[in-house]
Structure formats: structure tokens, C-alpha cells
Amino acid sequence: MKQNKKYNNKSRKKRIKKRSRFSRDSKVIAFFVLAMVFYILSKTVICSQNVTLSMRDQELSKKLSQTQQQVDQLTSQVNSLEEKSRVLGLLNDKVAENQKNVYIID
């Protein structure tokens, strides 16, 4: 019988489940806190990225407008150089007009 009691005590010990260190409520709270930290960090990173992209967008818009102004200036210069009188004025007397279509450069 003594062996039977020892055996029963061992089997009882095995049947008892170990309790975890943390209760279910503390696990839920820890998960909630981790979720809040992740949310705050991700929101901060996204906002800072948004500001950076906004500044870059402004810089690119400024460069685009400057480039467009340069293109407009060059276009107007080309158009003014295309005029017949402008070209003849630059060459002075070195050009002779023949039949109003053909120009002979001396």
C-alpha cells in the first residue's frame, strides 16, 4: 500500500498544471501597451516622412518653374532670331538680297 500512496502522490503532482507568471489580464494589458507604442512610432515616422516629401515637392516645383521660365526665354529668343530683318541686321552689309528669296553672303 505504501507504494500505491507514493504512486498516487506523483500522479497528482503531474496532473496539477503550472500557473504562468502572468495572468490573462496582464497579458492583455501588455499587448495593448505594445500596440499603442507601435501605433505612436509608426504615426511619428509617417508624419516625418510626409513633411520630408512635402519639402522635396516644393523644391522640385520651384526648379520646374525656373526651368519653365528659362525655356520660355529661350523660345522667345529663338523666335526673335527667326525673323528675317533681325538676321539681316546682324550681318549688316555683308549680305546681298537677290530676288527677295536668295541671300548671298560676301
Mean of the pLDDT scores?
79
**Series of H and E elements:** HHHEE
Distance separating the two termini:
136 Å
Tally of separate helices: 3
Strand content: 5-15%
User: How many β-strand runs?
Assistant: 2
Helicity, as a percent range: over 70%
Using the alpha-carbon principal axes, give the shape: rod-shaped
**Low-confidence spans:** none
Radius of gyration: 44 Å
* Main β sheet profile: 2 strands, antiparallel
**Strands of the largest sheet, in order across it?**
1-2
Structural class: mainly alpha
Topology, element by element:
Blueprint: H1 2-15, H2 24-82, H3 84-91, E1 95-98, E2 102-105
Please explain how this structure is put together.
The chain has helices at about 1-15, 25-80, 85-90; strands at about 95-100, 100-105. Helices cover about 75% and strands about 10% of the residues. Strand 1 (about 95-100) and strand 2 form a beta hairpin. The chain has about 110 residues and is mainly alpha-helical. A two-stranded antiparallel ribbon has the order 1-2. The protein is rod-shaped and about 115 Å long. The relative contact order is 0.04. The termini are far apart. The chain has three helices and two strands.
